[in-house]
Write a structure and sequence with these properties.
Oligomer: single chain
Distance between the termini: 124 Å
Shape: rod-shaped
Largest sheet: 8 strands, mixed, barrel
Number of helices: 20
Strand order of the largest sheet: 11-12-13-14-15-16-17-18
Strand content: 15-25%
Amino acid sequence: MERMRDGVPPAPAEAEGEGGGHTVLVVDDERAVRSLFATVLRRSGFEAIEVGSGPEALTAIVEHRVSAVLLDSRMPGMDGVEVLRTLRADERTHTLPVIFVTGEGEVDRRVRALEAGADDYLAKPVSTAELIARVRAQLRGQAVWTRVLEERMRERTELLTDLTRQRSGASLEETATALVHRLTEEEGLAGAAIVMFSHDIAVTAAATGPFAAALRTGRALPQRLARGLHARALRGPWVDTADATHGSPRERPKRRIELPGGGHSVAYTPLVAGDEVLGILGIVDDDPAPDVASRRLALAIDLGEVVATLLHDQRHAWGQHATSRDALLRVIEAEAFTTVFQPTRRLTDGVAIGVEALTRFHDGASPQERFLEAARADCGIELESAAMRLALDRAEALPEGLLLGLNLSPRLVVGDPALPALLSAQPRSIVLELTEHDHIDDYDAVKRAMASLGPTVQVAVDDAGAGYASLIHVLTLAPEWVKLDRLWVQGIDGDPARQALVAGLVHFARETGTALVAEGIETAHELSVLRNLGVGLGQGFLLDQPSPEPRLESPSSFG
C-alpha cells in the first residue's frame, strides 16, 4: 500500500476520472500536506479547494458548493474539532460529510471528532487508495441520503396537497377530525392533535393515537396547561422530548401534554393566521427517540400552514360554540344544579299520585334556556343524563308508590344504552316525558327504545297542544299520558275556545285510555273549569310550588 510522504504517488488506475464533478474541501495548515491531498483528489476526477485554517474553511463552504471536507485535526487558532462543531450546529451543513485527519497515535482526537459529528477519519501517513475510497464512500452515503430526502420531500408534498383537498366539514371539529385522521394514516405517525385557542381557554378540536387517550375532544384543557401552551406557541414551533429535560423545571409542566404510557416525543407547531395564533398542531412519531421528533418538526411546520388555512374560516363560530360548551360541561362536572319535585294530583280530591322531577341551576339560569343552550352546544345529552341521574338519586327519599316523571329527549332515550338497566333498577314506576321541543326523525326507533325500558316505564307527551309536533307525538307514540300545555290552561275560565279544545282532548283521552294532565294551574277558577270539563289530573303553582321536599298531602284548595 503506497503512502504519501515526500512526493505524490500515482492515483489508483480504477479510480481515475471517477470524481463525478464533486468538490472536496481540503483543510490543513501545512501547505505541502493539503497540496498532496488536493493533487490525489484531482487525479481521481474530483475538484479540490485548498485552505489553511478553520475560518477560511467556513468561508469557502459558504462561497462554494462543497460535497465533502478533509479536515485536519491540529490547526492554530481554530482547530478541527471547533470547525466540525460549527458545521454541525449550522442547519445548512449539519449533514455535510466530514473526514477527520489525525496523527497516527491521536486516538483521543479521533474520539472527540466522532463525538462532534465526524463521519469518518484518516490517520497520517495516509494511503492514497484509502483516501479516495473513504471520500467515495462518504459521497455514496450522501447520495443515498439525498435520494431518501428527495423521496421524503415528494411524500410530504403529496401529503400537503392531499390535506389542501380535504373537504371542510360542517363544523371546525369535523374538519379537524378529518385532518388528524388523515395525518395518522401516514407511515411512521402514531397520532396527531389539534388544540384551538378561544379567549382564555384551549379546547381539543380533534385527537388520535396517544393524544386521544390524554385529551377529550371538545373539552378545555386545564387553565395552567392552556396558558403555558399559548405562551409557548407565541414563540414558535418546538419539540417536547420523551425525557422532558428541555426547558426549566418551573416551565415544563405548564406546556406539556402528558401522553399516557410515557416515552413519547412530540413535535408542535402553532397554527397562525395573520398575526393571530389560532391553536397548535401536535404530531407523535412511532419512534419515541427525541431526534426523530426533531426531524418531524419540519413536517409539523409545513402541515401547520395548511391546517391553519383550512380551519381559519370556521374558527369564529367555533370559538363561541367552544366557550359555551366548555362552560356547560363545567356546570355538569361541578353538578351546579339541583332537583326539585312538583306533585301531580287528582283534581277530584287533591291526592298526589306522582311527582315530576325538575332541574334548577345554582346560577339562576332558566332551565328551558339552559337545556336548549346545551343542545346547541352538542352537550345536551350529557346535561340531561346528569340531571336525570341526580333526580333518581334524590327521589329515593320520596314515599313508595309515587310515580316519578322525568323529562328526557328522544335522543337520550334512543342513544343511551345504559338507560334500560338504569330505569329497570328503580323501585318505582317511571313516566318519561317527551316534549314538543324535541324533534323526532325516527318514530320507530323511539318506540323500540321505549319498549326496551320494560313495563314499569310509561310514556308521556309533554306540552300537548303547544304545536303540531306534539300532536304528531300523541298520535304516533300512543302514550299512556298526555300533558296539556299551560298555554291552554291559563285563562281557560274566560275563554270558550280553550274550553272547547280541552273538552275535545278529554274525549280523546277517554276513548284511548290515556291519562290527561293539565299543567300550569294557577287560579281557583282555572281549577274549577278543568274539573267541570272532566280533566282528571293537574299540576300548577296553585296546587304546589316545586320543592326539594314536596308537600304531598292535599292542598287547601281541595278542602
